[in-house]
Amino acid sequence: MTDARDSILARLRAARVDSRPEPSVPVRRFSWSRRETVERFRIGLESVRAQVHRVDDDWPRMLATRLRESKVKNLRYGPDGPLGEELRAGWPTDGPELIAHDQPIEACREALFTNTDAGFTSCLGGIAETGSLVLWPSRAEPRLLSLVPPVHVVLIEADRIVPTLHAMMSEQRWSESMPTNALLISGPSKSADIEQTLAYGVHGPEKLIVLIRGEDRPTGDRFAGQPEAID
Amino acid sequence: MRSEFRLRAERSLASQRARGNIRRAMDGLILKRRAAFPDLDELERLRDQGQAIRDQALANLPELLERLERRCATNGMHVHWAEDAAEANRLILDIIRRHGGHAVLKGKSMVSEEIGLNAFLAGHDIEPIETDLGELIIQLAREHPSHIVAPAVHKDRREVAELFARHFPEEPYGEDIEHLTALARRMMRERFRATRIGLSGVNFAVAETGTLCLVENEGNGRLSTTAPDVHIAITGIEKVIARLEDLAPLLTLLTRSATGQPITTYVNLISGPRKPNELDGPHEVHLILLDNGRSRIHADPELRATLRCIRCGACMNHCPVYHRIGGHGYGTVYPGPIGAILEPQLQGLERQGELAQASTLCGACGEVCPVRIPIPDLLNRLRFEQAQGRALRHGRRSGRERFLWRLWSLIHASPASYRRISGFVTRLRILARIRLGPWTRTRAAPRIAARSLHVLAQREGFRDD
Ligand code: SF4
Questions:
Q1: A-B interface: how many C-beta pairs under 8 angstroms?
Q2: In this structure, is residue A224 part of a structural domain?
Q3: How confident is the prediction for chain B on average, in pLDDT?
Q4: Which of A16, A175, A180, A183 to mutate against chain B (most B CBs within 10 Å)?
Q5: How many domains, chain A?
Q6: Residue A15, min C-alpha distance to chain B (Å)
Q7: In this structure, are B246 and B221 located in the same domain?
């Protein structure tokens, strides 16, 4: 094994290369107002069949109603996640059953795969250019919670939506510490493998419900009135 | 004697159904890509950037690979190196055996096709489970992918429905695409729950952070890399990039060039196995770095551009030869223009050199390639090398060929002789029953125009100088 490593590296080192200048990043920069940023985020997600709702602080009740209407019987959530307490406190007594997802997967694999209708997570932010949610799964909200249940519900704060992936990576200094798993999610799972025709709901969630909160809040208005260079 | 490639191409040309399926899909993909890049100036800037990022990575390849190895190890992954297919297969088998695995969930991976992993595993009593819908179709049909992004593009819904009916007879028959997709979901569900080992390819490996980037739409890639206890990722050594921020433009180029999507449904960034305090994710992540001829390509400053490829498939989507013979016509793992330059280099000109002829040199591939690989130039270079090799083996050109070329250069040596000959040919065109050897075997002979372009241009007032 070390043999392969050393001989591959030796061959690569023997090659003649001219040094190259560092490539510049990024090309894409946008000077969207905050409202436009959120709007593009919403349009991007809706164009791939995500359901997007603008919500206020009463969102747990609204979510419970929607889920009940679409016959969702239970919702798994991370009780220690950033929104766990808020979700539980605001959940109506007649809403779908709330299941705390706080066990190692070895203890709940069966239940997660066969007996869970929906999973709820928070997210790190959103990307307007592509209509993407950014998730950093954690102990409080593990990776499979957003993947295995047929419905995935996400709440995003409007001021966490930025124009581009590059903006988010550099503002949050991702390169200094990446989590074991980071995800961009842009819509429910889909495939075009048969006749290039889109069909939704393949192996991941069939339905993605995105709740945007705080759009009308005046604070944190980072992007309005700050035209950036488009080069 | 007709070569294997020619026989295969002729078979593909005769298969009207597959040709129709491929043609429809390619026409759609061309339009989608075009719509995804509405601003052509921006596209050119993005391509510059994509090329620069990949060029820089290849210029620093040994350092970046070492850095990647270090960072991945720090993150808790196991990094392995493989000289060739046999070594990679062996490494994978050892990992699976160590965990007592009998089956492997597979996310889509062209490198696993390159090393013939499925057949190898099956030969060792380990079941490879293709989880991507297109790959599942191919696996059930016992075929190979005909496109690097859309493996089952040559099949239509009826063929898929009949295939599923044969393999899942207890399920209701249906030709509806939603029905077929839902069926695949049901069939795969239990496998995702129960299988303990997953394997995937890698789209980009980030040296700076030790991160593997995987893009996909179905969720099978996430499931194959997240649900099992062990995740094995395999990639060619050229897939490494220096910085995390390089991902942003490369992803933009990749998904838009491939399918016209602004982004795939999932972009999965994996930087290590489950940490002790985490509740799910694989306990072990293995990264296998495969050479298999790549370091040889890297050694040549011109051919090195081949390794910039990000496997978007745009070159084949736009290739008139691919449109007609499809992926199976090439008979190699990588088809289309990228295959025509990559395979002769991976396998040698003696074995696959003829693929360099599978091009009209129309230039479409080079124009759409998101990392500006000069595919037509590289095809010419390989053709030249092949001709040189032939010359070395068989001496100079044959007598007839030598005579024809001498005639050709004589005719083109002076304007007067050229005019005289072309005028003569156009006048005699009624007599012409041209048979041009292999050219007219599958095509109509070209009709000679009544007036040469030169004469027509003169009439329109163009002057010779
Ligand atoms: S050669 Fe260029 S166009 Fe073809 S698959 Fe590779 S990156 Fe895409």
A1: 264
A2: no
A3: 93
A4: A180
A5: 1
A6: 5
A7: yes
| pTM of the full structure | 0.91
- At A25, the pLDDT band (50, 70, 90 cuts) reads low
Question: How many domains does one find in chain B?
Answer: 3
Residue A42 lies in a domain: yes
Same-domain pairing of B307 and B431? no
Asked if the structure places residue A230 within a domain, the reply is no
Helix (H) or strand (E) run with residue B41 in it: helix B40-59
pLDDT at B22: 95
The answer, yes or no, to whether any atom of ligand 1 lies below 6 A from the CB of B381, is no
Would you call B301 an interface residue with chain A, using a CB distance cutoff of 8 Å? yes
Do B237 and B364 sit in the same domain of this protein? no
- Bridge partners for B200 per DSSP: B233
- B419 and B442 assigned to the same domain: yes
Instruction: Give the chain B residue nearest A169 (alpha carbons).
Output: B245
What 3-state DSSP class applies to B23?
helix
Residues of B in contact with A50 (CB under 8 A): none
Across the interface, whether the CB atoms of A203 and B219 are under 8 A apart is answered yes
Distance from CA of A203 to the nearest CA of B (A): 5
**Chain A residues close to B181, C-beta within 8 Å:** 191, 194, 199, 201-202
Q: Is residue A15 part of a domain?
A: no
Tell me: do B310 and B337 sit in the same domain: yes
- Give the range of the structural domain holding residue B20, as residue numbers without chain letter: 4-295
CB–CB of A179 and B271 under 8 A? yes
- Whole-angstrom distance, CA of residue B131 vs CA of residue A204: 12
B1 pLDDT tier (thresholds 50, 70, 90): low
- Whether B304 has a pLDDT exceeding 50, the answer reads yes
A73, A96 in Cβ contact below 8 A?
A: yes
The burial class, CB within 10 Å (0-12 / 13-18 / 19+), for A35 is middle
- What domain range includes position A127? 30-213
Which pLDDT tens digit goes with each residue over B226-275? Answer: 999 999 999 999 999 999 999 999 999 999 999 999 999 999 999 999 99
Q: Which atom of ligand 1 is closest in space to residue B310's alpha carbon?
A: 7
Tell me the average pLDDT of chain A.
Answer: 90
Q: What is the pLDDT of residue A219?
A: 45
| Tens digit of each residue's pLDDT (9 = 90 or more) over B308-353 | 999 999 999 999 999 999 999 999 999 999 999 999 999 999 999 9
HSE-up (13 A, CA, CB side) for residue B445: 10
What phi and psi, each to the nearest 5 degrees, are found at residue B410? Answer: -65, -50
Q: Which residues on adjacent β-strands are paired with residue A211?
A: A53, A155
Indicate whether B50 belongs to any domain.
Answer: yes
Q: Report the gap between the CA of A150 and the closest CA in chain B (Å).
A: 11
Whether B342 and B417 share a structural domain:
no
